[in-house]
Write a structure and sequence with these properties.
This protein has 252 residues and is an alpha/beta fold. The chain folds into 2 domains: 116 residues, 3-Layer(aba) Sandwich (Rossmann fold); 115 residues, Response regulator (Rossmann fold), CATH 3.40.50. Helix content is 35%, strand content 21%. It has 9 helices and 10 strands. Helix 4 runs parallel beside helix 6 and helix 7 runs parallel beside helix 8. The protein is elongated, with a radius of gyration of 19 Å. The two termini are 28 Å apart.
């Protein structure tokens, strides 16, 4: 089955180049020239992936992305930003993009990103049924400000209540105040480490059944016996769609 892609680009030559790149692939392209056209088309049809130019003539591409991500239909649909502005990456990711590619885009780079985020094994699409009985609570703990924002934007506010903490001490305080359903926990943090938070959760009777996903870039953590107390351990860099899929599976 061909996957439907909405491509938003106001420059004719760039649009033609991208269309040529994706010929003879399993993607069915729909091209619009501005932000308002993108919102209108997205409301009329469902798309499996969106390629979004950022500098559009009628409205900013980041604004379009934010509006799309606020809708239930596109909360889990991957949006890939295409831009020549090197200063917009963080802004795009915070708005909900899964990746930012810089113009001129390489064909293999574009296809790799699209296949990574639209493959059945790698990305939870909008056809997956999200929890409907109640919003699940997620606590994201990381001393990296950018990662906290990126991880938080992976979870739709329609289905998840997301809180964040910048270190282990703050995480324990939040867990004591209101135990979450799942904790996404960095290991190397100041004051109180992720391993210490994990140990605290497992030793506290009220909290011992909280699902914990450890996230680390330190391979030595794999050898620590206490790491086995976690439900999952992911090595950085973490693919945001993978994190979302795994968290949803843990929550049943």
């Amino acid at each position: 089955m061909r996957l439907k892609v909405l491509y938003v680009e106001d420059d004719f030559n760039t649009a033609r180049m991208i269309d040529n790149m994706l010929q003879m692939t399993d993607y069915e392209m729909t091209h619009v020239h501005n932000g308002s056209g993108a919102l209108e088309k997205a409301a009329q049809e469902h798309f499996d992936c969106i390629l979004m130019d950022i500098n559009l003539p009628d409205m900013d591409g980041v604004q379009v992305i934010s509006q799309l991500k606020q809708s239930a239909r596109y909360a889990y649909v991957p949006i890939i930003a295409l831009t020549g502005d090197l200063t917009r990456e963080t802004e795009c990711l915070e708005a909900g993009c899964v990746a930012v590619l810089y113009k001129p885009v390489n064909r293999f780079e574009l296809l790799d990103a699209m296949r990574r985020y639209t493959s059945k094994s790698g990305y939870v699409s909008s056809s997956v049924v999200a929890p409907t009985n109640a919003r699940k609570s997620v606590l994201i703990v990381d001393d990296n400000d950018d990662l906290r924002v990126i991880f938080a934007h992976a979870f739709s506010p329609e289905y998840f209540d997301v809180r964040t903490a910048s270190d282990g001490r703050e995480a324990i305080a939040q867990i004591d105040e209101a135990p979450p359903d799942v904790v996404i926990l960095d290991v190397n943090m100041p004051n109180v480490s992720g391993i210490e938070v994990l140990r605290y959760v497992r030793e506290t009777p009220r909290d011992k059944n909280i699902k914990v996903i450890l996230v680390t870039g330190n391979t030595l953590v794999l050898r620590q016996q206490e790491a086995e107390l976690a439900d999952l351990l992911l090595m950085k860099p973490v693919e945001v769609p993978d994190l979302l899929v795994l968290a949803q599976r843990l929550l049943g």
